[in-house]
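re: the backbone from monday

yeah here it is again, tokenized this time
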């Protein structure tokens, strides 16, 4: 990786290093990912001292910082994982770009996250919200069905354009949607016939003037936060206490599709995971039916 530092590297402060890190690595990232990094980078700068010269920071100081985080009762394993992930990302980049002479995080590994399933919104709560939306809003009903049937993330649903739909194509191509999600990665998701029909009904009455599918009454694109607010209002109206955010619908999609026997590799591909590692870590327990059938097939043969 080419260096962007040529002289006076010993006079560079942490604050400048973080600024340059963000300028180079934030390109193409979603607003949510940028906020995630900004929060953790601010914490790192505060803990180390943003005016510290990079050349004065030692490996032992970073190890001590990790130990302080690890020993804090207020910091969960997931939070610790996020802090160290950001710390490693920053200092590896600083090393690769010759801001610092050695890799200070080489001996600071990521903590192992506990294996657990992510169930997502319950079937009962999803059915309640869908029934309420069907009664009150053609748009909301179609949008919630997209979450239910496609595994698309909130940002991906917000960014769906009319040109991303294939509603006039023959079956099954008519049920494909192109979504652009994390890191501006494009993928194809599939919807069921109920979602297809709901989208047809929404497009009949959808306000004109925007290239985006899901818009407000004024024809303005629904931003990710607005989508979350739509779901929050249904949750509040129905008195639901459990998790209902857009990503909880994605968790439910994985739970349902794996519980019904879809192979893990296919679920990972449809769900937008680059490998089956993440799929298995968070949802592998729901593929137990597939494992049992495989066991019966090979053990009893």
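seq for it, each position gets an aa:
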């Amino acid at each position: 990786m080419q260096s962007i530092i040529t002289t006076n590297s010993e006079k560079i402060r942490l604050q400048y290093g973080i600024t340059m890190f963000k300028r180079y690595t934030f390109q193409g990232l979603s607003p949510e990912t940028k906020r995630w990094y900004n929060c953790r980078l601010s914490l790192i700068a505060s803990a180390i001292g943003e005016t510290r010269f990079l050349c004065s920071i030692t490996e032992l100081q970073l190890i001590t910082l990790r130990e302080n985080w690890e020993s804090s009762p207020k910091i969960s394993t997931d939070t610790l994982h996020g802090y160290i992930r950001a710390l490693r990302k920053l200092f590896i980049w600083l090393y690769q770009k010759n801001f610092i002479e050695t890799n200070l995080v080489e001996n600071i590994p990521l903590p192992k996250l506990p294996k657990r399933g992510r169930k997502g919104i319950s079937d009962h709560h999803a059915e309640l919200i869908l029934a309420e939306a069907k009664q009150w809003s053609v748009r909301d009903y179609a949008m919630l069905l997209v979450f239910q049937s496609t595994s698309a993330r909130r940002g991906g649903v917000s960014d769906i354009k009319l040109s991303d739909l294939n509603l006039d194509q023959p079956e099954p191509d008519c049920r494909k949607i192109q979504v652009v999600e994390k890191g501006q990665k494009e993928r194809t998701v599939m919807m069921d016939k109920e979602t297809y029909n709901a989208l047809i009904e929404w497009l009949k009455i959808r306000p004109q003037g925007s290239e985006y599918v899901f818009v407000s009454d004024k024809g303005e694109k629904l931003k990710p936060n607005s989508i979350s607010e739509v779901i929050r209002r249904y949750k509040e109206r129905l008195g639901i206490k459990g998790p209902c955010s857009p990503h909880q619908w994605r968790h439910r999609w994985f739970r349902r599709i794996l519980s019904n026997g879809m192979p893990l590799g296919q679920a990972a591909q449809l769900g937008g995971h680059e490998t089956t590692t993440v799929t298995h870590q968070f949802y592998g327990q729901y593929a137990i039916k597939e494992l049992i059938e495989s066991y019966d097939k090979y053990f009893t043969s």
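The chain has a mean pLDDT of 89. The chain is about 55% helix and 5% strand.
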